[in-house]
Design a protein that fits this description.
Layout (H helix, E strand, L loop, with lengths): L30 E11 L4 E5 L10 H15 L8 E4 L11 E6 L17 E5 L3 E6 L2 H19 L6 E10 L5 E7 L7 H13 L4 E5 L1 E3 L3 H5 L11 E3 L22 H12 L4 E8 L4 H6 L4 E2 L2 E5 L6 H12 L7 E5 L8 H19 L2 E5 L15 E4 L8 H6 L4 E3 L2 H4 E3 L14 H6 L23 E9 L9 H20 L11 H14 L16 E5 L6 E3 L9 E8 L9 E4 L4 E3 L4 E4 L2 E4 L10 E7 L4 E5 L6 E2 L1 E5 L5 E5 L8 E3 L6 E9 L2
Parallel strand pairs: 2-3, 2-4, 4-6, 8-9, 8-20, 9-12, 12-15, 15-16, 16-17, 17-18, 18-20, 19-20
Antiparallel strand pairs: 1-7, 5-6, 5-7, 10-11, 13-14, 21-34, 22-33, 23-28, 23-34, 24-25, 24-33, 25-26, 26-27, 28-29, 29-30, 31-32
Helix pairs in contact: 1-2, 3-5, 3-12, 7-8
């Protein structure tokens, strides 16, 4: 029942091709040289992998080919069986079967804007009989398959019966090495299955990194710094990597149900790698370290429970032991140690710590490190130039042009452009999604750090400028958003960022206009293969996903794991008089609806409507949901009742925020429910 469908039509006014039949896509390609004819993607097609290079790389060219085959069938629903085979040469049409050929040419050269070589460039050559995707490395071929899939999706979104690729040669490579986003998983729990799906989605837009901020705490000054206040001991803090049973680090993970086991993390990391996405793990110290001090209070800096005391003899050995435990988990060539917002009065201690950890991680695991940019005043010490600086703030951060001039490598995460936050109670310190008016208006690209002071910006080809990451923070913790609400924040932002971080702004003549981006985004979001974060379903009849007048007791499995908003879930219910608050009315992979107080459960949190169902009669309930809110109409009341979350800003005042829930559609009844549910109907549209 769960299917992704390409259901958006691109209007004729917005569907301008690149003069040769190539659809504007996200991100835009560097160049296309047309030739004559077209490659018809009939229902029968084969993928052939160059046998000389099939096992090259990790993931290998053959690994990418198999994933591409699955994605191609996902996007182009009319395809039959698509075999993947090996051959040393392109076979062209064999027995009338058109061919997509994947190969490597290690002599091919592709460069970033700064002239550094990259393995991510590719050539896509289309003839009437074949499509050849070629690169110097398997990852470049992978990005070429994304280009081919997007072209197919954009054509199908116009209602054409079959796909036809215009003949010619696409030459493409990214402008920058680092392209992706940071997700604050330290203050908000995310399952590895959700993170895997995020990787798959981000890959469709050629993003190549997800930076996982995997340890942190809520920031409440009254709890952390109040005189005689020991509220810090119970303030939410988390460390997400679960050490094995019996490890000396077990006490570091107070919430094992909100931590990743090694097997689950490795599986997720592997899924991401098979889609061209590298997981950059971050364990944040010596600031943002409340979780460490709740575990070992003796390591705490006096008066600052979220800071480590770097002069304590056990602090650095303890942090080294944490990294030693988890470094073998990480396949990325570099990791982040955080290292932001520490006490400036302890600059030398801070710098010594960063350099010590950099040397330790490099010698132990042959990995380099990143830190958040922090201007620490010191006349005697400096951060090692081997450490990459992730710029995020003016004026507290060292000016990036100065860092680059001093030989540092820099990643742009400037908060004025690139910071998002989950729902907050302060009126929106940072936006919910990237400010596209700002990005397009300022012609933002990774070399742009300021919209108002050009002297703080660099050239697109600046040596040492590695790229950019935007950031989704969760300063108000688990209860502010569900995991799917985080996806809603990231979905369009990832696509526009894909264009800006791959192509730039003002560097290539083929870059997208805002109108072209707007035209391409909706059909591409709907078609993105390999995951279903939109929780799309295709009902068999009209908009009705299912209807059950008298569901069998105690429960019914509908076969529909979840349905994304907008939807309407209508039903009549009478709880058992002897146990009126027991059990679950509806359950799915993303949410549950409990009988007690009509409480939604999502991402491990409970959100009560506060309505007690009567036991002496049936109550009619209609639940309506959009991506912005969820409300119930009970017994045709004139005023709907909304599900809210209660948020506070640092203990100073409280505010309500609307919640959006996916429909809990997998099971009707069960989990201890003893009453009666009737006339259940789930329809699309709120």
């Amino acid at each position: 029942m769960l299917l992704k469908t390409v259901f958006f039509l691109v209007s004729a006014a917005c569907s301008t091709t690149l003069g040769s039949g190539l659809e504007p896509q996200i991100p835009s390609v560097a160049s296309f040289t047309p030739s004559h004819g077209a490659f018809e993607l009939s229902s029968v097609v084969q993928i052939v992998v160059d046998s000389k290079h099939a096992s090259h790389g990790t993931p290998s060219l053959l690994d990418f080919a198999n994933t591409f085959r699955d994605d191609l069938k996902d996007v182009v629903s009319y395809l039959g069986i698509v075999p993947v085979s090996l051959s040393p040469n392109i076979p062209g049409i064999t027995l009338g079967i058109p061919t997509i050929y994947l190969t490597l040419d290690t002599s091919s050269k592709y460069n970033l804007y700064n002239g550094e070589p990259t393995d991510e460039g590719y050539n896509l050559v289309v003839t009437p009989s074949s499509v050849t995707i070629k690169s110097s490395a398997p990852l470049g071929v992978w990005w070429g398959t994304r280009t081919l899939l997007q072209q197919a999706a954009l054509q199908l979104s116009k209602g054409v019966p079959s796909v036809s690729f215009p003949a010619g040669d696409i030459h493409d490579s990214p402008g920058w090495e680092v392209r992706g986003f940071m997700l604050d998983a330290g203050r908000h729990w995310y399952e590895t299955t959700f993170l895997s799906d995020l990787c798959i989605y981000a890959s469709f837009f050629k993003l190549n990194e997800i930076h996982l901020h995997a340890s942190d705490n809520l920031w409440n000054p009254a709890f952390l710094y109040g005189d005689g206040n020991e509220g810090w001991k119970n303030l939410y803090a988390a460390f997400r990597f679960q050490p094995p049973a019996g490890s000396s680090l077990e006490g570091l993970v107070p919430r094992k149900n909100e931590s990743w086991t090694k097997n689950k993390f490795l599986q997720m990391q592997g899924t991401c790698a098979k889609h061209g996405v590298t997981i950059i793990p971050e364990i944040d110290t010596p600031g943002h370290s409340l979780v460490f001090n709740q575990w070992k209070p003796e390591l705490m800096e006096a008066g600052a429970p979220d800071h480590l005391n770097l002069s304590h003899p056990d602090t650095i050995p303890t942090i080294k032991s944490v990294w030693d435990e988890f470094l073998p988990w990480f396949s990325a060539p570099e990791v982040s140690i955080g290292a932001d917002e520490y006490d400036a009065a302890l600059a030398d201690d801070y710098i010594s710590f960063v350099n010590t950890m950099a040397a330790h991680i490099t010698s132990t695991a042959r990995k380099s490190i990143r830190i958040w940019g922090t201007r620490e005043p010191s006349n005697t010490l400096s951060i090692s130039p081997n450490v990459t600086i992730q710029h995020w703030d003016f004026p507290g951060d060292t000016i990036s042009v100065q860092l680059l001039a001093s030989g540092y490598r820099v990643i742009n995460s400037e908060q004025a452009f690139l910071y998002l936050d989950g729902k907050t109670s302060d009126g929106g310190q940072f936006p919910q999604t990237l400010d596209e008016d700002l990005l397009w208006g300022a012609r933002w690209a990774p070399n742009v750090f300021s919209a108002t002071d050009p002297s703080n910006n660099t050239r697109a080809d600046a040596p040492g400028l590695r790229g950019a990451l935007f950031a989704l923070w969760n300063d108000w913790g688990n209860n502010a958003t569900t995991a799917l609400e985080a996806y809603y924040q990231l979905a369009r932002s990832a696509a526009v960022f894909g264009e800006k971080a791959w192509a730039g702004s003002g560097v290539r003549s083929t870059e997208l206009s805002r109108a072209q981006f707007d035209a391409a985004y909706l059909p591409l979001n709907a078609a993105a293969p390999g995951q279903n974060l939109n929780r799309v379903v295709r009902p068999a009849h009209g908009d009705v996903v299912f209807a059950h007048a008298t569901p069998p007791r105690p429960s019914l499995d509908t076969g529909v794991p979840s349905v994304g908003p907008p939807y309407t879930l209508a039903f009549r219910v009478q709880p058992d008089a002897h146990d009126p608050g027991a059990g679950v009315l509806f359950a799915g992979i993303d949410s549950k609806l409990h009988v007690a107080n009509l409480t939604f459960e999502a991402t491990g949190q409970l959100y009560a409507l506060g309505y007690v169902l009567p036991t002496d009669r049936f109550t009619s309930v209609e639940i309506h949901a959009t991506r912005e809110y969820t409300y119930a109409v009970i017994d045709d009341e004139a005023h709907p009742r909304y599900w809210y979350t209660l948020m506070d800003i640092w203990g100073e005042y409280m505010a309500l925020g609307n919640m959006s829930f996916a429909a809990p559609s997998q099971h009707i009844g069960g989990e201890g429910f003893k009453g009666t549910i009737r006339d259940v109907m789930l329809t699309l549209g709120a």
